[in-house]
DNA sequence: ATCCTAATCGGATGAGTCATCCGTTTGGAT
DNA sequence: ATCCAAACGGATGACTCATCCGATTAGGAT
């Protein structure tokens, strides 16, 4: 993002916001389509992002940041609440779920951001375990994957994120984590 | 399958087995590719299956049958075992997981087979609840979705289905279902 | 056995997407 | 003001998709 010529930076930003737009509409990313939406040449998109995966990952960085903010803002005894919010985010954004679950990102930075996130989740988890609210013997990665799993199920079954059925699924996970 | 001319039946079978083949190799189904692999005209594939989704669903019918067989063979106190086997199947076959989780199939028969399966799972669930091994208040659909969720997580994270990490995830679900 | 026709086949083809390549433009250093 | 490396953009060949229709075939009628 730095050391980038001014036009390059502008276009990169345009591309990312166009991609956000398209993703939001549920349309599936094509680098040509993104170029059209961003009003930028196809070549430009391909120079900034060699593959769709790269673009997807960079877009998801924002979601990582968002969750990070939630972690900052959540008060004490936050484990359950965070998990619910996390799941809600994952349900809303399939890409976030996809990138989060996958351990092998294309971009090294994705991997490091994901690792950082797991680190923060581990703190929350440790608190909850110390407070006797979560059983010991589960690690943050497991919690992350469980969140991805329920989120995927909720989305696939087209359940409203706050429907009774969706809550019931999350409830099972929560109970399964209790001491 | 009945009332089909002999050549039509032969081709339909070829197409299905070619599709199985491709899916098994993880390649993603294209109706033209299937035609090539089945050594059949493209038009033939499109007459038998209007869309990829249809073909996918019909292929998955076999998986439904397989799980049904498992349900027959499992002895008493079978809830945990069945769930584990079910998850293993779902991990192995992404298509099975996809079709299972989705309530709106393209083909009516898929929906009815799915419903039938949920009915059988409900029996097993009821047994387990009667035996005090599973808490009341969860329904078979929830169990099905949870299975799809963990399966998805395991596959995405590329965990070996019998690795400690994978077992841990299933364990959380199982515990979450206990009374 | 032969004919007849509706059912089925197959692949040529127009439409649409993908990703590269290269001539043109532009930012910004000197 | 000049220069050139960096960045742009879009024309294009390669590839996939799914339709359409002339050729073929199964299998019942005669």
Automatic annotation (TrEMBL), chains A, B:
This is TetR/AcrR family transcriptional regulator. Transmembrane segments: none annotated. Keywords: DNA-binding, Transcription, Transcription regulation. Residues 30-49 bind DNA. InterPro entries: Homeodomain-like_sf, HTH-type_TetR-like_transc_reg, HTH_TetR, Tet_transcr_reg_TetR-rel_C_sf, TetR_SbtR-like_C. Residues 9-67 form the HTH tetR-type domain. GO terms for molecular function: DNA-binding transcription factor activity; transcription cis-regulatory region binding.
């Amino acid at each position: 993002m730095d050391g980038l010529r001014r036009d390059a930076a502008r276009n990169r930003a345009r591309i990312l916001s166009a991609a956000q737009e398209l993703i939001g509409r549920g349309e599936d990313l094509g680098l040509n389509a993104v170029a059209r939406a961003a009003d930028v040449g196809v070549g430009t998109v391909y120079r900034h992002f060699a593959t769709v995966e790269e673009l997807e990952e960079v877009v998801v960085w924002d979601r990582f940041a968002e969750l990070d903010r939630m972690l900052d803002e959540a008060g004490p005894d936050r484990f359950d609440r965070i998990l619910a919010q996390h799941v809600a985010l994952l349900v809303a954004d399939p890409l976030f779920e996809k990138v989060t679950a996958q351990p092998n990102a294309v971009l090294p930075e994705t991997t490091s951001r994901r690792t950082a996130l797991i680190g923060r989740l581990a703190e929350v988890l440790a608190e909850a375990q110390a407070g006797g609210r979560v059983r010991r013997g589960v690690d943050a990665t497991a919690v992350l994957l469980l969140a991805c799993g329920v989120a995927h199920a909720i989305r696939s079954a087209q359940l409203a994120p706050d429907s009774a059925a969706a809550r019931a699924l999350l409830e099972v996970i929560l109970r399964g984590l209790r001491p």
